Structures are given as C-alpha cells and as structure tokens.
C-alpha cells in the first residue's frame, strides 16, 4: 500500500491524525454521529475482506485535514450538517486510479480515521 501525504502536519492534531493513517471518484462514504461516539460498527473487531472482494485491493491513501471538514464532507456525501448531527469524516475513492482520500476536520478521533480507512478498502460496508 502506498501512502501519500496531502500536506505536512502543522499542528499536534494533524500529526496525530497522520500517524493514525500510517498505522492503521467512483464511490463515496460518509459517517455521521449525533453523540460524538463511534458508530456501532466500530465497537467490535472485524476481519478484513480478502483482496479479491475489496473495492481497491492496494489503494494509494491520501489524508486531507480541513478546517471545514464537517462542511466539506457534507458537500461530498450529501449528509447535511444539522443542529443534532454532522458528518464526522468521509472517504472517497477512484477505483480506476486506485486512490482513496480520507477527509477529517482538524480535531478528530483515531476511530474516525480508522473507520474511513476501512472504507478505502471495503467500500460502503455499513450502508
């Protein structure tokens, strides 16, 4: 798997987020929450799909941290920002180019980064 940083981290939060991505378009995925807790799908262990069943077996992953991360993901996914919920992160991918981009706001949690990274490999697994 090739990793490509979109920009160098400038804050501790960005550095932490980039480290999480390192550790751990045709279609789009967005994940929202109303409680700031991880979605139920993220509270249990999972077995990765075999390469043959993944959307992209070996994607190039980009990580994009944006000041307007919630609004950016709302525009991409169509999930609106409301007083009670908002997209916490999103991923979009291009199968032909074998690329996936994970987008988060500046302040995020490792669970959101990992969740979106899983979308890069498995597509819309909880829709």
Question: What do these coordinates show?
Answer:
A 5-stranded mixed sheet has the order 1-3-5-4-2. A hairpin with a 4-residue loop joins strand 4 (86-94) and strand 5. It has a domain at 1-7 and 29-45 and 58-95 and 120-124. The chain contains 3 helices and 5 strands; from the N terminus they run βαββαββα. The chain is an alpha/beta fold. 27% of the residues lie in helices and 26% in strands. It starts with a strand and ends in a 5-residue tail after the last helix. Helix 1 runs parallel beside helix 3.
Beginning-to-end CA distance, first to last residue? 25 Å
Strand content: 25-35%
What's the shape? globular
Structural class: alpha/beta
Low-confidence stretches: 1-6, 18-29
Rg over alpha carbons: 14 Å
What's the total number of strands?
5
- Biggest pleated-sheet summary: 5 strands, mixed
What pattern of helices and strands is seen along the backbone?
EHEEHEEH
Strand order of the largest sheet: 1-3-5-4-2
Helix content: 25-40%
């Amino acid at each position: 798997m090739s990793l490509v940083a979109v920009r160098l981290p400038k804050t501790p939060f960005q550095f932490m987020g980039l480290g999480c991505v390192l550790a751990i378009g045709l279609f789009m995925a967005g994940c929202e929450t109303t409680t700031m807790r991880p979605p139920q799908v993220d509270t249990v262990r999972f077995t990765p799909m075999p390469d043959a069943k993944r959307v992209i077996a070996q994607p190039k992953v980009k990580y994009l941290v944006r000041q307007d991360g919630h609004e950016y993901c709302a525009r991409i996914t169509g999930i609106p920002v409301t007083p009670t919920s908002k997209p916490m992160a999103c991923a979009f991918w291009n199968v032909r180019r074998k690329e996936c981009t994970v987008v988060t706001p500046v302040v995020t949690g490792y669970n959101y980064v990992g969740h979106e990274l899983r979308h890069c490999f498995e597509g819309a697994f909880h829709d």
